[in-house]
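Changelog-linked ticket: adenosine-5'-triphosphate example.
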Amino acid sequence: MISLHQVSKTFVTSNSRFQAVDAVSLDVGAGEIHGIIGSSGAGKSTLLRMINLLERPDEGTVIVDGEDLTSMTAKHLREARRSMGMIFQSFNLVNNRTVSGNVAIPLEMAGIPKKERSERVREYLDFVGIVDKADEYPSRLSGGQQQRVAIARALVSRPKVLLCDEPTSSLDPQTTIGILDVLKHINRTFGVTVVIVTHEMNVVTSMCTTVSVMENGSLIHTFKADKGNTISSEDLSRMTATQTGVKVGETYV
Ligand SMILES: Nc1ncnc2c1ncn2[C@@H]1O[C@H](COP(=O)(O)OP(=O)(O)OP(=O)(O)O)[C@@H](O)[C@H]1O
């Protein structure tokens, strides 16, 4: 479903250059839940953002669902991006729009008629369990509820891929479990391929079927779970703390 081939990214500022991602190749199969772990600054978010070309790689190719995003025109890329949803640690909701108004944004941009828009918004708010909050504003919701709105907004275009950048890092453990359940449910119900950047051990062990470990911009290891299972903590424990950047509570494994 996702194939990154030798992608690299260097950030250039007025007085420095920093290679965040260095010739990484990665394949994520359809229906997988793929974790990206590694210590802070290893290049995880940059790699994730290259999948939908929020960061355009300096070199290499990005192929999603058989299409080479790196060689597309801007118009074609905008269309291709509709098959990829994305959620963030900080939710990124529009505060002066209601919950429904937020979820409707991708449908408005795609020119979906109002009646169909309302039905789809309701369907996905129902799916994430917050249809009763449809007319509230984001500031009146808890962090977990806000992330559910963001998930509904990412799903409403019926994407094939969901990119998650530390989606539970600002949530408490109980709320995290609820959000992970929603993400697993999305994967099982719609067959959506999920790629998730995380620092949290329970995210990896409770849902990931494959995991990439990044260090200094390179992909240094990939784990695959046994068929039908998720990655075990024993597998991860073979890596050193600095390599995985994954923590249980405050303890790195
Ligand atoms: N837009 C940018 N301009 C300049 N440098 C950047 C930019 N984005 C990222 N970087 C640098 O690239 C490196 C990798 O960043 P990235 O966010 O991908 O790491 P990460 O592994 O996700 O880190 P963390 O776990 O702390 O979020 C960091 O040193 C960061 O400062």
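Closing comment: Example verified and attached. Residues 142 and 171 are 9 Å apart (CA to CA). The pocket of adenosine-5'-triphosphate is lined by residues 11, 13, 18, 20, 38, 40-46 (CB under 6 Å).
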